[in-house]
Amino acid sequence: MTLILLNADVLVTMDAGRREIAGGALVAQGPAVEWVGATADLPVAYRRQIDEGRAQVLDMRGHVVIPGLVNTHHHMYQSLTRAVPAAQDAELFGWLTSLYMLWSHLTPEMIDISTRTAMAELMLSGCTTTSDHLYLYPNGARLDDSIAAAQAMGMRFHAARGSMSVGRSQGGLPPDAVVEDEAAILRDSQRLVEQYHDAQRHAMLRVVLAPCSPFSVSRELMRESALLARQYGVSLHTHLAENDNDIAYSREKFGLTPAQYAEDLGWIGHDVWHAHCVKLDEAGMALFARTGTGVAHCPCSNMRLASGIAPVRAMRDIGVKVGLGVDGSASNDGAHMLGEARQALLLQRVGYGPAAMSAREALEIATLGGASALNRDDIGALAPGMSADFVAFDMSDVGYAGAGHDPVAALVFCTPGKVSLSVIHGKVVVRDGELLTVELPRVLERHRALARTLYERARHGGA
Ligand SMILES: [Zn+2]
């Protein structure tokens, strides 16, 4: 059935002209947008479909409609380990070492339920496409567990097959108990790509190869993963240049800056995006801009772990592709995509002054920026031929009171609200602020129980 959205106070298109249409309307046919314009200009054929009851109509009076937000970095299993006391006040390496053993008790059900929970939170905060970087597979857990959860939730998903292979005994950071054998990692990566990866336009599921970080895998695994990814035409993702200790590790172990290391391994290009890059140097930024290598900027996590301020202004000025990521729920305990856009704006201003980022640029990074980091040209904007992914915010919410002067900027400047409507792949997944694809209270109840179990197991049974 045709989906017709009418009467949006403003429809933000993020199209080539960055049009913001007052009294906006949009028509979706199946998974794609077919027409965008002012409600007054809605072609007569669509009006007839409405009159004859052949269209699903969404009246968005009082709402601002924007393209669905794109989250480029997450570790959804971490929603089970938020606000863990031992990890509240540490920087990256200390934070990781206090959590690794807790995570070693994860089970397949925990992956499934935490992914559903994290996706619910994202969907209600305006996100329609997300990546998830899963790099621990204890107790029979598989990436298939997150993929099944994404399919149940109805979310567009880039499932990143993470991995760790260099344990503490080999000079890596993670304990040996949570690392995998490299041959097994590559075999499983190939299986996942062959089983699930969809290269088509409007794909709901893509697979990404994603060894965790320079300090937890070998050079060989990085190189082999890049070769495998290129053989199948899938993207590559990892953590890079996150903080000063990360840089020191790279210089000490490899004698290279993180950007030089990435280049040496073949980890640059349009099909690669790196998380954080807080400490990417000028040469690294120039390399990324030249090669179309993307960055997932995670402002909340960078603040939480005191990693620093990523030079996003400088990156954007020279043409680096920058998307936004909420990062894992243990280093950003509030995974709100619109909130992340707000923090991106605020943090750039702390670092580089009030003109460093506007509200509209923050929204652009959260939509088009994310799409380009994920190497997609079918999401992030609302125009004919683009995927029908859009969300609506109710401007009568108390958080937006008095901000009618510029409702689009209000989305970023005001208290981040929840969506009242979300459409993904042409399907309504949130209506009147309620998730339709899953019974959220039941998922959350199970999530609470599993979070308790995980914590108790690690305290009593753990290493
Ligand atoms: Zn991360």
From TrEMBL:
- Do the record's keywords include Hydrolase? yes
- Annotated ranges, domain Amidohydrolase-related: 64-429
Identify the keywords attached in UniProt to this record, alphabetized. Hydrolase
Which Pfam families does the record associate with it?
Answer: Amidohydro_1
Q: Which InterPro entries match?
A: Amidohydro-rel (IPR006680), Metal-dep_hydrolase_composite (IPR011059), Metal_Hydrolase (IPR032466), MTA/SAH_deaminase (IPR050287)
Q: What family classification does the UniProt entry report for this protein?
A: Belongs to the metallo-dependent hydrolases superfamily. ATZ/TRZ family.
Quote the PANTHER family the UniProt record gives: AMIDOHYDROLASE-RELATED DOMAIN-CONTAINING PROTEIN, AMINOHYDROLASE SSNA-RELATED
Protein name (Swiss-Prot/TrEMBL)? 8-oxoguanine deaminase
Tell me which species this is from. Answer: Cupriavidus malaysiensis
What taxonomic classification does the UniProt entry list for its organism? Bacteria, Pseudomonadati, Pseudomonadota, Betaproteobacteria, Burkholderiales
